[in-house]
Amino acid sequence: MIAARPDHPAPEPDDAARAALARTWARAPGLYGWITTTSHKDIGLRFVVTAFVFLALGGILALAMRLQLATPQGRALGPDAYNQFFTTHGTTMMFLFAVPVMEGMGLYLVPLMVGTRNDCFPLLMNFGYYCYLFAGLMLYVALVLNTGPDMGWFSYVPLSGPDYSPGKRVDVWSQMVTLVEISTLVGAVEIIATAFKLRAPGMSLNRIPLFVWTMVVTSFMIVFAMPAVMLSSTMLAADRLTGISTHFYNQAEGGDALLWQHLFWFFAHPEVYIIFLPATGFLATIIPTFTRRTIFGYPALVLSLVATAFIGFGVWVHHMFATPLPRVGQGVFTGASLMIVIPNGIQIFCWVATLWGGRIRVRTPMLFVLGFFAAFLIGGLSGVLLASVSIDVQVHDTFFVVAHLHYVLIGGAVFPLLAAVYYWYPKWTGRMLGERTGWVVFWLVFIGFNLTFFPMHHLGIWGMPRRVYTYLPEQGWHGLNLVATVGSWVLAMGLLLLVVNAWWSRRYGEVAGPDPWGAGTLEWATESPPPPYNFASLPTVRGREPVWEDDGTTPVVTGLATDTREVLVTTLHDAAPDHRYHMAGDSVWPFLAALATAGIFVGLIFHPAAFPIGSVATGLAIIGWFWPSKEPEPIHHEHERPAVPDGGGE
Amino acid sequence: MNSRAATLAAAMALLAAAGCAGPERHSVVDPAGVQADRIHGLWWLYLAVCVAVYVLVMAAVAVALVRRRGGSDQPLTAPPLAAEVRRGIAVAGCVGLTVVTLFVLLIADFVTGRRIDSLAREGTLTVRVTGHQWWWEVRYEESDPQQQHNAFTTANEIHIPTGRAVRFELESTDVIHSFWVPNLHGKTDMIPGHRTKTDIRADRDGEFWGQCAEFCGHQHANMRLRVIAQPEAEFQKWLAEQRQPARESAPKSSQDRGKGVFMKSSCVLCHTITGTQAGGRVGPDLTHLASRPRIAAGTLENTRGNLAEWVTDPHGIKPGVRMPANPLAPEDLHVLLDYLESLK
Amino acid sequence: MTVTATRPTIDASRLPAEVRDGRTPAWWGNVLFMTIETTTVALLLASYFYLWRNYPQDQWPPPQGNTDPPILKPVPDLLLGTVNVLLLVATVPLMRLVDRRCGRQFDDLEKLHATKPSKAPPGKRPPARPRVVMYGMLAVFALGCISLVLRWHEFPALNVRWNENAYASLVWSLLGLHFVYIAIEVVEIAVLFAWAALFEVGENQAGDIILTAEYWYWTVGVGVVIYAVVYWFPRVV
C-alpha cells in the first residue's frame, strides 16, 4: 500500500454522538429495511451490482452471438434468436448497464466527495432504483418468453413499425426504454441537486472534485437527452398500439422514417458521452492518487467537460450520413464531430502531463488506466475516421463501427470503470481486492478485448456488415471471426475472475483501513466502509484535495442534530453555510410508486387504458409518499450566520 | 513496459496487414471504381494521421512510465510553477497541433466529398434498384419514350459497362435497406417514401459483391448483390439478351411440361416471366433466371440441386423468407427444374 | 449532544432550518423537472415543424378526405382553444396572489422562529389557513378543472381524428401532453389544499405551494406556446 499520511488526525466526536448518528441514519432491520432504505451507499452500490448483473447477461448474449459467427453458416443460433440476442445485448449494455453503473457510482461517491451524509432526495433515489430494476426484469422476462425485441437497439422504422414487426416485441422495448429513462432522469436530478446544494463549506466551484464535475455535466446531458428517446419510443408505441395507430413514422400518411432517426440519435449520441464522461471523472480521480500529485490543468479539464457536453448535442447526424440529407448539412456535422476531438484531446493531454509531472505508482487501478490510454485512443481515432462523410459511407453499418464503438465504450468507459472498482472496492467493503489477481484480471481483459475487437476493424473494411447472423465461406471472413470469438472467451474469463475475486475478497481480502491508497478526496477521510452517517462531523475544505491538504486545523461542522436526519446546505458558488436541511426518512412508498409506474408501462404493451388506470395507482402512491409524517421537528435557534472558513476562491 | 510494446507492435502489424490481404470481392481497400478510389485515398491519409497520433501519444505515456517512477509518496498539492508552466505550454502546443490537424482532415474530407459527388453523367444508363425484404429488384430503364419495350427487370444482379457512369435510383417498398458495393462506392440508404440516388463508375472489369447494409429483418444477412462490370460490347450483348422475353420451350418437351407446372402453381402469384402469363411482382423476375450464377439473393450457387432445395423448402436455407414452401411431386419438380434451367 | 473535536469548529446550529426558493434543494428539483418537460415539449414541437417541411407550403393541415364534403385545410376551430388559453392565463395572477401570500406566511413564521402557526406565540400567531391562500387555491383548482373540460372538447374541435395522418397525431399529442400536465397540477393543488385544510399552512407547506405555483406558471406558459402552434401556425403559413 502507498503510505497514507500518518499525521492527519480525523475529527473525534464522542461515542455517544456517533451512536446517536448511527441510529438516526441506519436503515430499518430485515427485508423491510432492505426495501425501504434511502442510504445513498446502499442504493448506489445496488445500482452498481445490478448493472454488473446486466453486464453479465448482456455478455452471455454476446458470447452466444460470437459462437454463431465463429464459423460461416454456423448453426448455433437461427436468425430469429440471433436478432433477439443482438438487440437485447445492445439494449442491455446501453440502457441497463453503462448508464446505471455510472449513476450508481455517482450516487455513492458524490455525497462522500462533497462531504455530506446522503444524496438530496433520498426517497426519489429509492424510486429510481426500483424503476430501473423493473425495466430490466421486463426486458429479460420478455426475452425468455421469446418476445424479446429483435429489431436492433436503435429500432429503426419502418422495420419496427406495426407493418413489419407484428407482435409485442417492439412494444416491450419501447415501454422498457421509457421506464428505465425515468430512473436515469431521477438519478440526474439527484446528483445535480446534491452537488449544487450539499457541498462542504469552503468547497467553492473551483474546488469541486473533478469526478463530481463530470457527474454534474453528465446529469445535465441526461436532462436534455433522455426525453428524446422517451418521446420517440412513446410515439413508436402509439403508432403500433391498436386503437391508437398514430402516423408519426408512417410515410404513407405524412409521417417520416427519418424523424425516428433524428429523435433517436439526438438522444443516442449524447448517451455515449453520458457513458464516457463519468469514466473521465474516474481517471481524473485515480491518476492523481497514483502519480502522487494534483491533477494538471483542472480549469481546462472542467471546461473540456462542458465543451464536450455542448458539442456532443451537435453531432448526431453523423449516424445518418448514408441517408439523403443535404450534403451541406452533413458537412456541418463532420465539422462538429471533428471539433469534439479538441476537448477530448485536452483531457488526454492534461492526464499525460500529470503522468509526466508526477511519480507514477503502478497498482491495479493504474494498470486499467494505462489500458484505457491504449484502447480508448484507438476508439477515438477510429471515430475521427468515421467523422468524415466520405469514409463513413464506406464503413458505416459494418464491423468497423462495431470495433469503434467497443473500443470507445469498453476502452473508454469499462476500463476506467474497472479501475474504479479496484480503487473504491476498499471503501465499499473495507477490504482490498487482491493485487496479484488484479494483474491477471487486467491482462486477461486487455488481451481478450483486443483479440475480440481489433480484427473487427478489418472485417468491416473487408465488407462485413453489422447485424448479420451468418456469412458465406467464400466471403473470407471466417478466420478473423474465429479469432474474435476466441478473444471473447478470454475477455469473459477475465471478467469472471474479477467477479470471483470481488466475492472472495469481501470475506478474505486484506483489511483496507480508511485510506489505503493515500488519496486526497473526502471519501477517504472516513472509515471503510463509511458509517451510515458518512462523517461524524461534516468536514470543511480549503483546497481540491482536502485529505492531502489537511494539517489538522481545517474546521469541522458542529451543531447539526444527531437525532434527526439533518445535513448542511451551502450556497451554490462559494459553498458558504446556508441552512440546515431535514432529509426524509425511509419509506415504502417509493417502492410502491415504482411498482405502479412499472405497471403502467407493462400494461401499455397491451392496451392504452393502462395509462389512465395505472396513473391513478401511481398518483395514489405519490400522494402517500409526500403526505406529511410524524417526524421530529428540527430545532430552531436564534439565527445568525456562522463565519465561512478560510474565504471562498483560490 | 515490454509487454505493452509487444502488444503495440502486434497491433500495428495487424493494422498494416489490413491494406495488403483480404477478400477482394467486397473490400473497401480494393477500389475498382472512381469514388471508391478517391475514398481509398482519403482513408489512407486519415489512417496515417491517426496512426501517427496514436504512436506519439502512447510514446508519451510509455516514456512517462519509464522515467517517472520512484520518489517520495508525499503528495504534491502545489507543484513548482516553472515546471507546470512548461507542461502547460506543451499541452497548448499539442492542442494547437490537434486543431491544425483536424482542420486539414476536414478540408480533405470536403474536397473528397465534392469530387465523388460531381460524377458527370455520360450516357443515359439508369438503373432502378428497389430493395425488398430480402432481395434486390433491378430495373433497367429506357430513357427514350419510343423504346420502352427495351426496359426490363432482373433481380440480385447488376451489369454495368466499365468506364461509363451509371445512375442508380434507389427506393424501397418495405423497410430501410442500404445499397452497398464496397469496391465501387460508399453506401446509400434506400428509404421507403424517399427516392435516393447514387452515381457509380467502375474503372475495371470484374465481379463485385455487395450486401444490404441496413438491418432489415430476418434475412438481412443473406441479401447479397452482384455487380458485374463488363467491357461495353459485352454489356450491350447482355442487355440485348435480357431484353428478350423468356425462351420458348419446344412443345411436349420436359421444359414445356415444367412450364405447365409453374403456371399452375402458386409461383405465378409472385414471379414474372415475360412472354408468359406469369406476372407476379412480389418476388424476383425469373425471365432469365438461368443466366444468373447465383440464386436467393446471392446465397446459393445456381445449380440444379440448390434450385430444387430452394423451390421446395426455402425456409431451410433462409428461415423467415417470404417465399412459401412448395412441396412438389418428384416428377413435377424434375420438369419444373428443366424449365427453370432453360430460362437463359 | 456534545461533540468534542481536535480542530476548530463551525457551529451550524444557529442556521435557519427552513428557507425558501433558490436556497432549497427542492427548488432545484422543481426547476430540473421543468427543464426535462420543456425539452420533451420542444422536441415534440420540433417534430411538428419537421413533418410540416415534408408538405407543400399550402397543404398544412393536410386535406381531410373522408368527410363529406372534403375539407381542404382542416384548421382547428378557434373558439374553445382560445377561451381555454385565456382562462389559463387568467389563473396566473390568482396563483401569484397565493404564491406571494405564502411567501409572506413563510417570512412571518421565520421571524417568529416557528415552523408552523400553531408553534408561534399566541399573540403574534399568523393565520393557520390564510384566506387568500385557501380561496386562491380553490379558485385555481376550479378553473383548472374547467380548463380540463374545455381541453377535452378541444380534441374533436381539431377537425381531424388522431389517426388520420401525421399532422393529426402531432396536434392531438401536443394537446394531449399538455392535458396531462394540467391534470397533474390540478391534482397537486387539490392535495395541497386538502393538506392545508386538514393541518395548517406552515413553512413547509408554504414552500411547497410556492413551488407548485412556479410549476403552474410553467404549465400555463407551455400552454400558450402550444396554443400558438396548434391554432395559429396553420393559419399563417
CATH third-level topology of one domain in chain C: Four Helix Bundle (Hemerythrin (Met), subunit A)
| Mass-distribution shape of chain A | globular
Q: Name the CATH superfamily classification of one domain in chain C.
A: Cytochrome c oxidase, subunit III, four-helix bundle
Just name the CATH architecture of one domain in chain C. Up-down Bundle
Which residue ranges of chain C are poorly predicted, with pLDDT under 50 across at least 5 consecutive positions? 1-5
Q: Low-confidence stretches of chain A at least 5 residues in length (pLDDT < 50)? A: 1-11, 643-650
Rg of chain C (C-alpha, Å)? 23 Å
Structural class of chain A: mainly alpha
What fraction of residues of chain A sit in β-strands?
under 5%
Largest sheet of chain A: 2 strands, antiparallel
Mean pLDDT of chain C: 92
How far the N terminus sits from the C terminus of chain C, by CA atoms, comes to 71 Å
* Shape type of chain C: elongated
Order of helices and strands of chain A: HHHHHHHHHHHHHHHHHEEEHH
Counted beta strands of chain C: 1
- The total count of helices of chain A amounts to 19
What quaternary form is this? heterotrimer
The helix/strand order of chain C is EHHHHH
Q: What is the strand content of chain C? A: under 5%
Largest sheet of chain C: none
Mean pLDDT over the full residue set of chain A:
93
